[in-house]
Amino acid sequence: MNNTRRHTLAALAAVPAALAFPTLARAQGKIVLGFSQIGAESEWRTANTESIKAAAKEHGIELKFSDAQQKQENQIKAIRSFIAQKVDVIAFSPVVESGWGTVLREAKAAKIPVILTDRAVNEKDDSLWVTFMGSDFVEEGRKSGRWLLENYKGQGDVNIVELQGTVGSAPAIDRKKGFEEIIKAQPRFKIIRSQTGDFTRAKGKEVMEAFLKAEGKKINVLYAHNDDMAIGAIQAIEEAGLKPAKDIIIISIDAVKGAFEAMMAGKLNVSVECSPLLGPQLMQAVKDLKAGKTLPRRIVTEEGIFPMEVAAKEFPKRKY
Ligand code: GZL
Q: Which of 199, 223, 252 should be mutated for ligand 1, with most atoms under 8 A from CB?
């Protein structure tokens, strides 16, 4: 180690780590990434967090990780803290689409690049972030709708109840949009009730209980914006004395382990894949950014669809 670095490190050793932290990491030649995560609301989110933490370690990136517990104000606080600590890059998964302009302008003024992961924001000024990496939620909704139109066996009217994701979030808005775009081709398919289950099992069960109370045996199909809400709804369907995936056809999104277990138990008909494994892509993007490379404005995750018939064969290969 040359003299300059030795002196830098010696000087830094005297400064409280909290103040020196990013500088210390930088003196060691490490990139410091501030990441604001939404929370731990679903299996998907937990797998996403694990992927980000593991990839940061593998890539030798100092990760400052904050869990917002589903609250936008906590994400804004975390981003401000990353700015104050002068991290090299900020990345986050925005819990909802709107309300980010002010804090993103503060990051821009501080000359700290921002990467959007998983979910997008609806800010008009797209100079406020360098890239958005994540799934095409509209296409996930289309895949759900296409599967239903191609596989539904019943005749006459098809009454659908919909469990929406978090109100105002990109996946909830776009999955609804894509699904409705497809089913409008066959007017007998109608959404008769639609309400948010906030992407959680508990809320998914609670709202499905209300749907069953209001509509009972009229319900032919459940479209859930994620597997966790579908799994909660399956409990409600069984407690109502009905057979999930038979009396009520169930379509959901994410393709997490719990969905494969439900499909192998014959309780879920299909899950559309939405990969949470964004960690490696994110860390590579951070390194490319710091190496002066230009990132594509949009990095899309390629994904499939898993009907219950293939669940047992696919399950051993699943990584989340
Ligand atoms: C989708 C992600 C969604 C998942 C849910 O990319 O934002 O949030 O579908 C998660 O399971 O809670």
A: 199
- At 203, list the tokens: 């809320």
Give the pLDDT confidence of 66-117 residue by residue, as tens digits.
Answer: 999 999 999 999 999 999 999 999 999 999 999 999 999 999 999 999 999 9
Q: Which residue has its alpha carbon closest to ligand 1 atom 3?
A: 171
Asked if 144 and 251 count as a contact pair (C-beta separation under 8 A), the reply is: yes
Mutate to test the pocket of ligand 1, among 254, 271, 299, 320 (most ligand atoms within 8 A of CB): 254
Which atom belonging to ligand 1 lies closest to the Cα atom of 119?
A: 7
Of residues 208, 230, 228, the one with CA closest to residue 219: 208
User: Is 21 within 8 Å of 81 (Cβ atoms)?
Assistant: no
- Ligand 1 atom 9, closest CA: 226
Pick the atom of ligand 1 nearest to 228's CA. Answer: 11
Q: 17-63: per-residue pLDDT in tens?
A: 444 455 566 667 799 999 999 999 999 999 999 999 999 999 999 99
- Residue ranges and CATH numbers for the domains of the chain are 3-133+276-300 (3.40.50.2300), 137-274 (3.40.50.2300)
Q: Is the pLDDT of residue 183 over 70?
A: yes
Asked if residue 140 has its Cβ within 6 Å of ligand 1, the reply is: no
Is the Cβ atom of 141 under 6 angstroms away from ligand 1?
no
Residue 242 CB coordination number (10 Å): 15
Backbone angles phi, psi at 144, to 5 degrees: -65, -45
How many residues in the chain? 320
